[in-house]
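Chain and conformation:
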Amino acid sequence: MLKNKIGIISLIMLLVISLLAPIVNAENEVEATTTDQVDPISQTQETYTIKEGDEYLFEQNVTIDTPVDGNVFICANNVTINSQIGGDAFICANTITVEEDAYILSNLFACANTINIKGAIYNIYSIGDTLTIDGFVYRDIRSVCNSLNINGMVGRNVFVNCSDIHFKENTENTENSSVASYGTIQGNLNYFSDEEITIPENAVSGEVIFSQLANYTFDITDYIYSLGTILVSVIVIWLIGLWFAPKLLQTSTKAMSWKKALQIIGLGIIVPIVLALLTIIILLIPIASQFVLLLLCLLMILFFISTSVTLIDINDGICNKCNISKNVYKLGFLIIVTFIYWLLTFVPYLGAILSLITVIWGIGSVSYRLFIKENENDKPTTTDNTKKDEDKTLKEKKEERKSKAKKESPSDKATDARKDDKSDGTAKDQK
């Protein structure tokens, strides 16, 4: 019996140990596999983060290392792009570098001194001194620059206004070398320059079209056109104000004070700055971005009519001093004032300063008339002054007659009273 019990107990112990051993081993294996699998997953999540939406960057140095699923607006000194941009890139900088791993899915609008393209871009629109293509441009290049260096491939056409065009030539065997190893344009090359530039063979697959820049020559028709433009704009704005808003033209007839002049100049400086800041702020708000065009149109209209408004104010001031009230004479003086201003704009340094002053005064004058209301009762008019003077003379005469009547005899008083009645009647008739 005892031996049977010991055998049964030993069998049970062996079964328990056999069951526990694989469980412990399995737990160890799970821990090993989890530690091996978790680390690489966390690393891939950190390296593949994407910024969604548009990016607005205004710094000294800007480097984009993270993919952007949207447009990019950058204003900086040095810009370096190392990743993918899903939309357009609007960049204003001193130096722009698109590295080999960078890829702009849409257009690059660049204004920079030096532009280096080592990656891939869809289209390029640029203004600058030097444009260098070491990578790939899938479609077109439209640029105004001093020097264009093509060391990579352009998929379609190139439209450029430049002085020099340099291609990286094929130094290897033409059959074995790849297209990307030397500079090529798969489409047409249209360039504007002072002189024709030698283009290497097989560098352009399509046509090479050269257009020479015309040298500037004196042409009196240009001056006549500028004079006619300013005369027409001034006269049209004056007629519009005369027919539809004559009160706005009459505000300049009042006496100009230093306070009013300073207010007009201040508004002429502040209003454009405020409108420009509002435009930038609205650009940062996606919901209100549709109002940007409205503000830009308003700003352009103010700059367009500013010179005409200033000349109209000067003409009204001259006509008021000379007591000219007929509109025909005012129009004649307005043409003379505009012609004199047009001549002064050609004077070196003075013309630029005068143009700036007229723009500031015109914007300030329009803003003053729209936002500031003058009190008509601040200064009495000439008719009110004459009435007050007449009333004073009548009162003085009456007092003098009363004093004389006290000194004279009763009979004289009666005659004086009759005279007073007659004089009062005539005064009332005059009123």
Summary: Residues 51-212 form one domain. Confidence is low (pLDDT under 50) at residues 1-6, 13-46, 377-387. The first strand starts at residue 51 and ends at 52. The radius of gyration is 43 Å.
